[in-house]
Write a structure and sequence with these properties.
By secondary structure, the chain is an all-beta fold. It has strands at 6-9, 23-24, 34-38, 55-60, 68-81, 85-99, 105-110. Strands 1, 2, 3, 4, 5, 6 and 7 form a 7-stranded mixed beta sheet that branches.
Amino acid sequence: MAISQPLVWKGSFNNQVSNPQSWSPNQEPQPGDTLFVFSNFGQPGGPSLGSPDPSIINASGNDLRGDLLTITTIKTTLNLTNEATANVQVNSGSSTFNLRQLSSQCNARRRRRSTSP
């Protein structure tokens, strides 16, 4: 049984979820993995690894394996094709979801920030 681990989107020449080079570490998502898209990497106080802004992510069929994709970027476009489904949490920034070729399900929620009185 494989141990799940966080995967960070870094994009690649084709922006395909199924391309191991699109993720850090270099591997295709597996069921139970935690998936992140975030920016500000390499910036003072920011993570040392992350995603380009804007990010374009192409998912087909069962590429995302039912895993939650957490987005914290300035702008992300998620293209779903061939009956792809996605569970997405948008923490910040703006996201566009394009559904094509029988893809009709994208469960997206926006995280609300709490404020102190």
